[in-house]
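3.2 Worked example (two chains)
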Amino acid sequence: GINDLKRQVPVAEILKNYQKIIDYLQYNYPDSRILVQSIFPTQLPTEILTFSIPNSLIKQLNQNLAQQVNDQGSIYLDFYQRFTNTQGNLRSELTTDGLHLSLEGYKVWQFALKQTESRLSKNRDHNYQKWLQESAGFPLDGQSYSWVSYQVKPGDTLEKITLKALGQEDFDYCDLIAIRNNLISDIRPIDDQIEIPQLIQK
């Protein structure tokens, strides 16, 4: 991964190592789902870390890795864009030194992994996510819901908003709102406008 790029290991060799690891896991754990995530961007060099790992190289590796993982029948997790700023570099608030994640960075990563776990367990694939983003409403637990605009208030988190809207704070429910609004974090800016479910009264 990123340490290989720092040591200037060729991309082809890195991919071959990934292939060997996936082959090993598939052979020894045939009933398991194998997930491989993208390599994060960097913001290098910095005053702390003076070396450079070009994000263009990371993107190239990620693109090749995604294809290889899919060809091997495993699941590729593309988290790269969650961590980039408008210049395509690792967002400053998500890193301590341009390479390693800060506490806020780990929260974004944790949220991404929770979303992945929820979507895999609920079979909420890309087609379902696209449908939910475009739908006027959706069924849930025998009830029908429509989408309404909501202005985020001080102290609101995704869990609290979901509890207000659906009476549940389990992450599987939270992620319905996250999918609809393309959220990549539990915390929303105050006064942010999002859409939340509203029960359709019969």
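3.2.1 Second chain
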Amino acid sequence: MNTISAGAMYSRAIAGQNQANPPVPEPPAQEPPRPEPPPPPPPPPPVFSEKQWTYGVYLGADNNLVTYMTNNVEDMEKVGSNAKMNVLAQLDRGPNGPSSFGGWSGARRFYVERDSDATLINSPVVENMGLHTDMSSPKTLTDFVVWMEQKYPAKNVALILNDHGGGWKQDKLGKGAISDDHDGDFMSMPTIRQALEEAQAATGKKLAFLAYDACLMGQLEVAYETRNLTDFMGGSEKTEGAYGWHYEELLQKYYDKPNLTAKDMGDILVETNSKHPGDIQTFSIVDSAKVGDLATATDGLARAIIASQGSAKAVKDDISGAVGFGYGYKDLGNIATKIANDSRITDEALKAAAGQVEAKVKEAVTAEWHKDSYNGATGVTIYAPSYGVDSDYRDLQFAKDTQWDEAMEFLKSA
């Protein structure tokens, strides 16, 4: 008989127990929670397909023209944008806008669409810029031009500056070119040039058309400042009425013109303004490519005036008698005509220089209209004061590049 030791029996018993109750495995370690995936990036802003034109109107209405300029946008809405042209408006009604047209305040950007409601601007507000926007700041103008060119691409871009105007002048009397009563001051021609240079550098695109729905901007000094930034420039030699341009009629004619060019745009603008002599008394368009030649001819006339000292009194009389528009602004072509035809002047070099200015004015001005009361006007004014030149004038590119201011100082004592 086999005998089993006590130790062996104990080992078997333990083994049996282990088979009946196997050890429970430890649960696997839990993985740390995974972080939430980042939210998807916002969709890019919509990019509109390229049209033939983008037409942007920059309305600095934080002043006594606010009702008239709001009406201008209403007028644009009677036609609106279409497949051919984007119509955009940036309108600043100041921090305390009037109760009319919905009573809103501040600055807004609109994509102008057709609408028949004459009491409200119902076009989409594509950007609300808040209560305080300084429309006289060159940065504000640069931002507007870059925005409209990048968001609403087009083969051609037109920029309209709508506000008070004073030609080149940089004082409160002339209001500069764009004024802002609450948040700024005025935008002078050097700062307008700066704004448009920065916009062109940012977009790589030159304006096809630049025009001023403002007083007194049809001036050689104004055109010279922006000659490299736009193909054509338009402005009035004289002051405008508060209402300014008639945009409904203007936009409709633009739409009706097949293959509208920048020159067509200028021709139509002059023709349309001529039908509203109560608001617009003069208007003209200059070809920017010809402005440099006109400035060179004017510099030649200035040098001839200084050299021909015996003719100074006659020249001063001719300038004084030329068609004038206030602020020391005289019609340049009319000055040249008077000098060229003055029997008192025997200096043939001086007369020839005046004849060159006459010819270059005709080449530069592509369209022009004036009321009968300004007969003799040729479409371009120049600063020709009898009392000496304002010191700010010398900030202009035209004054730096020509002898015109020296000629005016020379004539002061004639």
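3.3 Remarks
The longest strand covers residues 51-60.
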